[in-house]
Amino acid sequence: MQKKLEVVATLGPAVENKISDLIQAGATAFRLNCSHLTLESVSFWLVNIEKAFQEANKVLPIWFDLQGSKLRIGKLIRPIELKRGSTVTFVNSYSQLEDEIPLPHPEIFKSLHFDDKVALNDGRIILRVEHVKENKFVATVLNSGELSSFKGFNKEGYDVYLKDVSSRDINFIEQTRDYKNIGYAISYIKSEEEIALVKKHTVDKPVVAKIERLRTFDNLREIANSADGMWLCRGDLGVEANIYS
User: Fold this and answer.
1) CATH number of the CATH domain containing 92
2) What is the pTM of this model?
3) Domain count, the chain
4) Which of 16, 135, 174, 242 could share a disulfide with 92, CB 3.0–4.6 Å?
């Protein structure tokens, strides 16, 4: 029996001039995280990837990782160091204006209560909620860590279902779906209905379901039948399931 090993290399600033090196090292596909991209930077990456393919005389799959219903903080002015024991304020905003942390998900503020635990950046930073207002909450940092723009936000037991594909994700799909070797990975998929919503826009392109919530396992068979593949994601799933257990 032959085993097929896929090595999907995530591209970012550290390797923007090393795509050919990654191919030589054994990469079998590339991933671009759209949460950290603009429409302009997508074009930059596609040009550089195509150049690397020509040099290597091979074409590999390119996966665009769409945000889906994944929760993320907004855009910070610069990375900030959250120190244990300090308090920070989250506000319903896309961009940072002062010292507060932007969180562009108004539904979250309605779900929080005193003493709730929330996690940032794949569980690297844990906070305890102290005070909640309509579009703002204050939390105490339980362990230190650096936070940069668009890192993930988790609240245990809180599920957001994809009711429609965001305009941001649609823009990324429309810009890239004419390329022959493109596929899409969708964050936080929890049902086959969510796969169907995405496939309305991707036409004949493959769609991968990212398994990142414990509740997803209740619908795993249906999701497997609807998606063209599945990724078991240790980051957000590890926050919920305890990656060490």
Assistant:
1) 2.40.33.10
2) 0.71
3) 2
4) 135
